[in-house]
UniProtKB/TrEMBL annotation:
This is Carbamoyl-phosphate synthase large subunit. Signal peptide: none annotated. Keywords: ATP-binding, Nucleotide-binding. It comes from Microbacterium invictum. PROSITE patterns: ATP_GRASP. Residues 117-300 form the ATP-grasp domain.
Amino acid sequence: MRILVTSSRNTFALDLIRKLGSIGHTVYASDTYGGAVGSHSRFAAGHLVTSSPRFATDAFISEVADFVKAHEIDVIIPTFEEVFYLAARRDDLPEGVRVLTGTFGDLARLHDKASFQRLAEDAGVPIPETVVVTSDEELVETIARFPRYFARAAFSRGGVGLLTNTGPLAGKTPVEECHPTPEQPWLVQPFVDGPMVCSYSIIVDGRVTAHTTYVAAEQWAHSTAIAFLAVDSTDTLAYAQRIVDALDPGFTGQLSFDFVDHGDGLRIIECNPRPTNGIILLDAADVGRALTGDVDEPIVAEPGTEREITLAVVADCFAEPLSHLPTSLHDLLHVKDVGSGWHDSLAMMWSPATIVHGAKIQHGDRKEILAALGDDIVWNGEPVDGMTSADAAALDAVHAGRV
């Protein structure tokens, strides 16, 4: 196949490019800046620099459409929130190209944490008590109800902008900086003790074809995972399929879920309707088979498989040496890097370009840069320029709480 992988700045996008290229597919990469790591992989046949999906949607879609035609692309695989713009403007892409995404309406239901709460409940997936707030006053009143609380915006990602009074992130975000609105609500939950468990799934025609479950052996700034350990997938696979069954028939795409292990079982927290680093725990051949749907049973990552992003582990070690040095040294000595064996070191040499890209948008501490790294490709619940009337109605329904 001839494949275009978008948002190639992400480590998991680079991993996907390597895996698909290594098994014989012709893979191209795209992003909004030339220094994206995946665009410089030796497994990429070429790359495209596009306009921002978020800030220049018409130009982005036009550029992708032209590239698809020029390079006879069979499949587009989004790896970040450009998935929403591609789904909303699917009719403006060349006929015959397959886009690995569900309908815009389903993606909105999954991404909006308020509607996802209802979706999970309807699917019979355990979820913590959740209160949706739409004003500063409601937020203050609600967090006062819980001796220990955890709150975040309905449209958020990457462990950035979390409000809590418990754990290592307690007090990092002042409540005065949080401003829920009806268009941008926040969710408040009681803080649940227990480790975070994450999953990643490939879904083809309404069926999970590959699945990984993992814990973050190490995190960057107590948020984004940078070292990964595969664990048992029995419960998360069943929950993922239940949620897929609650979506439009024939859903095809990639879904990532976060759970917390409460001690008496997993409870689901949120969904990212796109890939995450869980994909790095799958073999290349398995990813290829899963994307075609050519599997009898879901392919599941072997528990005990470990991978790390070595450059990030080193950086975090120096950033917080007292707390992270022992774990970081263990990981550096014993855990396999995501790039190990690929002989593709040039790609990761472009990693600083991603930090520079983020720094151009937000200057300041690590939290601000982390948030800015995807600022030009995120979707925060707004109408998409040029979206169909059906998708606009689906978005209105999500915001109104009717689905």
